[in-house]
Amino acid sequence: MNTLIVIAKEPRPGKVKTRLQSEFTPKEAAALARASLSDTLAAVSATPAHRYVVALDGDTGPWLPDHFTVVAQRGDGLDERLAGAFEDAYDGTPMLLVGMDTPQLTPALLSTDWEGHDAVLGLTEDGGYWCLGLRTPDRWALVGVPMSTDHTGRDQLNRLRALGYKVKLLPSLRDMDTPVDAAVIAAAYPELRVSRLHKRLQTSAHPALLFERALDGVEVVATGTDGRMVPSLSEVDRWSAPADEADRLALSRCEGPVLDIGCGPGRIVTALAEQGIAALGVDISEQAVRLTTKRGAPALLRPVEAALPGEGRWGSVLLMDGNIGIGGQPESLLRRCAELIRPDGIVLVEVDPDDDLDDTHPIILRTTTGRRSHPLPWARLGTRAVLRHAHAAGLHPTEDWRTNHRAFLTFRR
């Protein structure tokens, strides 16, 4: 009978599964890590063994079964922590150590017969390894092996063989490190805890999270609730670039100070600042505000409905890049803009080039790995619909122009 060791980190937000945070929040990534750890511990518990050990970085929690002995991880790097785990768990029986990132492992894999071998090694598809078995502790088998590379598994195998070990190789498994990994494992093993949680999370993302992922370069598309494509995020690259000729033509109409509603990564506020025009961006995305301030332009994390600085004193309020759609109630949004400008101020709205477009259906943001947001109230409007809503909001059109396949309207009270 072997001693089974699980080397694990406490599933604490921000401390585990950071690569999952390209699509999941730190709290969601930690929840997936906890589910993966629970699946791993369940498979280990179902495997007959002499002793069960968790080599833990952090504190225990309700996820830990009572029959596991806990030893604290020690050492500076993963290679030293692995060596320490074998030393601290050893009680005279062969030891098989697994990580917490392959929840699809099974008792059949863990109870493999390695009689006649000195060590056992299970490689992962990303170049690492998911298990290592040793008959006795041996620091020289581990310390100095490069960890967390795409050749760690190969290097570990070479080290064992260089020391004269006869190694039995187990089937390769896939680590759950990235959103793609999580999606593949969830699809292949739907019965796992982590798979069931992943399925729930796939349909419950906050739209702001996926918008921020788009600003980070993750491919995100928008569809209607019926699945039809909506080109709402097709110009993220343009939003992140410096203001172009069409932007500058629109900004030439602005009277300072300027409030940019839904400022995104800040190209408009930055362009205004470069012209010496006082401007402020507001957005509900933390990443958008960070990107704007990183450019040296001021931005505020706040929804347009909340109290804003200088209400009733702005020379211009901007709704660029289709931001007339914010909230899905264009008349209410335009009324709010009218409240924000001074009596002689302007509201500048970028509208859809299709004059007849009048779509106020919600949209859903989706990633290429299948994660999707809950419905986001939105509107896509051409000139005719915006003119109708503006009239109801007490705004009078003063200018209508087009350039580079983009269309704009200017209003005053």
TrEMBL record:
Residue ranges of the TM segments: none
Superkingdom of source: Bacteria
Taxonomic lineage of the native organism: Bacteria, Bacillati, Actinomycetota, Actinomycetes, Propionibacteriales
Listed name of the protein: Glycosyltransferase A (GT-A) superfamily protein (DUF2064 family)
One Pfam family it belongs to: DUF2064
Gene3D superfamilies hit by this protein: Spore Coat Polysaccharide Biosynthesis Protein SpsA, Chain A (3.90.550.10), Vaccinia Virus protein VP39 (3.40.50.150)
Matching InterPro entries: Nucleotide-diphossugar_trans, SAM-dependent_MTases_sf, Trfase_1_rSAM/seldom-assoc
SUPFAM superfamilies the record matches: Nucleotide-diphospho-sugar transferases (SSF53448), S-adenosyl-L-methionine-dependent methyltransferases (SSF53335)
